[in-house]
Design goal:
With about 120 residues, this protein is an alpha+beta fold. It has one domain: Heat Shock Protein 90 (2-Layer Sandwich), CATH 3.30.565. The chain has three helices and five strands. Helix 1 packs antiparallel against helix 2 and helix 2 runs antiparallel to helix 3. The termini are close together. This is Serine-protein kinase rsbW. It comes from Urinicoccus massiliensis. Keywords: Kinase, Transferase. GO terms for molecular function: protein serine/threonine kinase activity.
Length: about 120
């Protein structure tokens, strides 16, 4: 059975650490190793940075996390993924996510990120 968590926070850089800390806490509940936790934190940080950049002034950043026994999924608001190609910083953020995650896809103004995890629970 998966645990689901949904966060919505103002589109301000000051709130991105909230998503990062939440991810760390959820990962610690699954007794993941420190390297995996750091990978997940980096994934969320870069995804939030992309969302921040791409949303411009379109409201809050929305993050949904599904934590299962063998996979964690992040769904984060991302209204204009085509803009990623226009900015070197955005391309770098996307490259970091792709290097750490198992899959990254864009659907219906949402960035979907999948990462396999292995736990003893």
């Amino acid at each position: 059975m998966n645990d689901f968590l949904s966060l919505s926070f103002p589109r301000k850089k000051d709130y991105i650490p909230v998503a990062r800390l939440t991810t760390s806490y959820l990962a610690s509940l699954k007794n993941l190793d420190l390297d995996t936790i750091e990978d997940l934190r980096m994934i969320v940080t870069e995804a939030c940075n992309l969302s921040y950049f791409l949303q411009e002034d379109q409201g809050d950043i929305s993050l949904k996390i599904s934590l299962g026994k063998e996979e964690i999924t992040f769904a984060i608001s991302c209204p204009y993924p085509e803009k990623i190609k226009e900015d070197d910083g955005s391309l770098m953020s996307e490259s970091i996510i792709r290097s750490l995650a198992d899959d990254l896809d864009y659907r219906d103004s949402t960035m979907l990120i999948f990462k396999s995890i292995y736990t003893d629970q």
